[in-house]
Task: structure prediction
Amino acid sequence: MTDAERSPEKTHYICQTYVETKAGRNGQPGLKIAKQFEYSTALEAKNRAEREALSEDCAGADAYMVTEDQTSGEIGDPSFLIRLGNVPESDDF
Result:
């Protein structure tokens, strides 16, 4: 039996980018998810977020990790590795 088969948890490393949306009723522009990439290491996700944040059409980028309970399918709260540019409040995540 491998370690992966014994452990009911799996860690996902995500890079997520945002673009600004048009101003809503309150006159404030919002954010929406533009792209999402999954990587096998934290460093890969962080490096991609740094590259994406330099893009002209990117408002901001996050790199984070979440743990999935493979038995129940539940996903834990994100643990941010890096947050760049205009990103949502972590409470909104």
